[in-house]
């Protein structure tokens, strides 16, 4: 089934873009959530190749403030979680397995804590515990008060009509393919891979206020994990430059039911190890939800 683009108008008037694909009459659903300065194309390759499309509904969205869900007001965990709940309600889905990457993984945890009845399971791809942040992300976390102030100032300017009128389109499926080909061919791939960690590149396709609020959110405290009863699969990068692997594992240890798989990647698993990521998710889902 081809992806069907849809739009949801939230209670506060924000318009959220999302897409539905997979098995039309399926009783089970995956809700795919992207990360900072990203959009639903983060999951295009997964949706196009996963065997789960034969028996599951696949939903993916542009988070409020990113992609086609342009929004220049307040953005944060409360708003994102409300948007996820609204999409599930609009699609008539009671419970879903929520799959999140980077910031999306942190949102998935918050959603499970706030709306436990809506979550059948979680897949956390490169989650970012605040106490495990490293490198550039640790420096960003140390600047959190400044980010909050800059986000407030940017929102104030936006209300006055001061904002960029044009943003670059970002096709992550194409960028991922180009990056893998370049990595296989030589050193140029390292430069392309570094693009995923560049704020200057991020801001080409993301409104400034939304970007600042997303960075603020990714450095925010996690919910109390011991209260999350849903089964969890965590996929971690073996060579992550954004989080400390040992501290990430320690944080995830508070989850009552969490299985951890380590994949060989440095920046982003979906870019560098898409097939291994897909296989791990499919295997775990088949085992955990065979009879659901």
How would you concisely characterize the structure shown here?
By secondary structure, this protein is an alpha/beta fold.
Give the secondary structure arrangement, pairings included.
Blueprint (H helix, E strand, L loop, with lengths): L3 E6 L5 E8 L6 E5 L10 H6 L7 E5 L15 H14 L5 E6 L1 H12 L4 E7 L9 H8 L1 H16 L12 H14 L2 H7 L4 H7 L2 H11 L13 E6 L7 H8 L5 E6 L5 H4 L1 H15 L4
Helix pairs in contact: 2-3, 5-9, 6-7
Features:
eight-stranded mixed sheet; 292 residues; 17% strand; Rossmann fold
Descriptive report:
The structure is a single chain. The chain is an alpha/beta fold. Helix content is 42%, strand content 17%. The chain has helices spanning 44-49, 77-90, 103-114, 135-142, 144-159, 172-185, 188-194, 199-205, 208-218, 245-252, 269-272, 274-288, and strands spanning 4-9, 15-22, 29-33, 57-61, 96-101, 119-125, 232-237, 258-263. Strands 1-2-4-3-5-6-7-8 form an eight-stranded mixed sheet, with helices on both faces. Helix 10 links the parallel strand 7 and strand 8. Helix 2 (77-90) crosses helix 3 (103-114), helix 5 (144-159) packs antiparallel against helix 9 and helix 6 packs antiparallel against helix 7 (188-194). It is globular. The model has no long low-confidence stretch (mean pLDDT 93).
């Amino acid at each position: 089934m081809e992806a069907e683009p849809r739009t949801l108008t939230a209670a506060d008037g924000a318009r959220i873009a999302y897409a539905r694909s997979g098995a039309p009459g399926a009783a089970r659903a995956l809700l795919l959530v992207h990360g900072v300065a990203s959009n639903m194309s983060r999951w295009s390759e997964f949706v196009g190749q996963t065997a789960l499309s034969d028996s599951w509904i696949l939903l993916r969205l542009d988070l409020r403030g990113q992609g086609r869900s342009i929004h220049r007001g307040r953005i944060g965990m409360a708003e994102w979680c409300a948007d996820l709940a609204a999409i599930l309600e609009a699609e008539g889905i009671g419970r879903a397995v929520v799959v999140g990457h980077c910031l999306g993984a942190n949102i998935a945890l918050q959603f499970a804590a706030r709306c436990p009845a809506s979550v059948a399971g979680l897949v956390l791809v490169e989650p970012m515990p605040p106490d495990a942040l490293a490198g550039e992300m640790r420096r960003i976390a140390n600047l959190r008060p400044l980010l909050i102030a800059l986000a407030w100032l940017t929102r104030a300017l936006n209300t006055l009509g001061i904002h960029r009128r044009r943003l670059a389109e970002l096709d992550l499926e194409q960028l991922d393919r180009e990056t893998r080909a370049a990595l296989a061919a030589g050193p140029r791939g390292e430069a392309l891979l570094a693009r995923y960690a560049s704020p200057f590149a991020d801001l080409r396709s993301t409104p400034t206020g939304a970007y600042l609020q997303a960075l603020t959110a990714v450095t925010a405290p996690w919910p109390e994990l011991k209260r999350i009863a849903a089964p969890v699969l965590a996929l971690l990068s073996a060579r992550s430059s954004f989080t400390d692997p040992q501290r990430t594992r320690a944080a995830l240890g508070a989850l009552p039911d969490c299985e951890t798989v380590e994949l060989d990647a440095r920046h982003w698993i979906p870019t560098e190890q898409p097939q291994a990521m897909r296989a791990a998710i499919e295997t775990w889902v088949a085992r955990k939800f065979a009879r659901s």
